[in-house]
Amino acid sequence: MSQNLLLEFIKRFPADRSRPFLVEYDGSEVSFDKLLDLTGRYASVLASHGVVKGDRVAVQVDKSSDVIALYLACLQLGAIHLPLNTAYTGDEIAYFLGDAAPRVFVCIPNRLETSQDLARKNNVAAVLTLGTKGDGTLNDQAASADASTDIADVTEDDIAAILYTSGTTGRSKGAMLSHGNLTSNALTLHKAWGFQPGDVLLHALPLFHTHGLFVAVNIMLLNGGKIILLSKFDADDVIERLPKSTVLMGVPTFYTRLLAHPGFTRDVTSNMRLFVSGSAPLLAETHDQFFERTGHKILERYGMTETCMNTSNPLDGERRPGAVGPALPGIEARVCDKDGNILPHGEIGVLEVRGPNVFKGYWQMPEKTASEFRKDGFFITGDLATLGADGYVTIVGRDKDLIISGGFNVYPKEVEEVIGEYDEVGEVAVFGLPHPDFGEAVAAVIVPANANGFDEQELINRTQDKLAKFKVPKRIWKIDELPRNTMGKVQKAQLRTQYADTFKGNAK
Ligand code: AMP
């Protein structure tokens, strides 16, 4: 029997398909019927351009409900959906087209010319456009196409999507996710987070990333709707729609921005059942403030492009601030040293995971893939973590963000938690800089909480009461905004480059 994820969704669509799957920003509704019809038309258009099972379809477009139909059309054909961050430049797109060799590239209407040029140079057979208002050549061609109803026969190991990792170091890698990976993770999360008919998900995440697409959209497709779709996160828009929603999935910056908004009150959250956070660490401080303001405990979960979601705080049970909860059902997590030896509970090491959620490898990088798996099938995540005897995992940072100062390990998160507690601190990021004496020195940037700013030396002195000497930042700079990518992850590599020369020749 075909293991196509689309079949899994359709099986769970409501009996009455005239019901809304999604509500657009302008309030118009997209029913399940309409979604399926558009999916079938897109599938026909893609097929008319030669797309067959296994072909890549690269997509770099602004967010709209049509993108969801395009994703489903790829599933329908057994083709590989390849969403690309809208922030990528021409040079970056050229790399992805060259690497993934898609059959079709779907871009935004006003980038047609440059995209055609890139496509020609990279042997992409066709370029289609897709706007956010039902415009673009994909929609033009879909209008006169028959809606295909054939759904490709696939196995659970066939690839459904390739998502390029953010690639802060080295080449960006294409993570291959199979129908089985996506199906198992969506079913697991749907159950773990207690989705029921009647849930309404407020969607403010991008659709080119695992969080917005494979967590948020897949769950709601399994749940029989319904999504309220926002083109992006805007605190005013979110606050206006919270009373009509029951679930919000966000990155930590959503929550800090909501907390900074005077209109974000307990009242506006009274219809809400669940707030989920992930993709970057949520400070315990934010978790606590959110609880004080709203009475809701944010549920933090942990995952990555390569693995979908691995761990989650429980729906019922302790949602522990600063921790990402136990491994999800069917998934194993362990913490090991760099040679793969399992460490005792509570010790910091690299988190490794195994389960039906873990990807099939990096596109055309068999050696890189092999080097990131253990012989027994565990994937080495590159995240530093502890695993408690109670199964709860705490992420302490990326392996590559670890600071080694005077031979001692400093985990940025620990220092961030200390500095983040001071009233004058809005946001903080801690990172290592080359230092002639210590190898690396701890440094920090903060976004002050108010216009009064802060006194650097006084703040450094205060951290000395809480942190061992080698963890105390040698410098703390003020910054207007932390450099974050679209998923809210602080770009520490950028900070390291910016301040790289600070301690040069400063041997003391
Ligand atoms: P991405 O592949 O873009 O989803 O990024 C995955 C990475 O985001 C993980 O390897 C972690 O470093 C980080 N991440 C995701 N969720 C969390 C979380 N809840 N807490 C801390 N880091 C997280």
TrEMBL record:
Pfam family, one: AMP-binding
Gene Ontology BP, a term: fatty acid metabolic process
Keywords: Ligase
Family the UniProt entry places it in: Belongs to the ATP-dependent AMP-binding enzyme family.
CDD domains associated with the record: MCS (cd05941)
Catalytic activity: 3-(methylsulfanyl)propanoate + ATP + CoA = 3-(methylsulfanyl)propanoyl-CoA + AMP + diphosphate
Enzyme class, spelled out: ligase
Record-annotated AMP-binding enzyme C-terminal domain positions: 414-489
A single GO molecular function term of this UniProt record: medium-chain fatty acid-CoA ligase activity
Name the UniProt record assigns to this protein: 3-methylmercaptopropionyl-CoA ligase
Domain AMP-dependent synthetase/ligase intervals: 18-363
Record EC number: 6.2.1.44
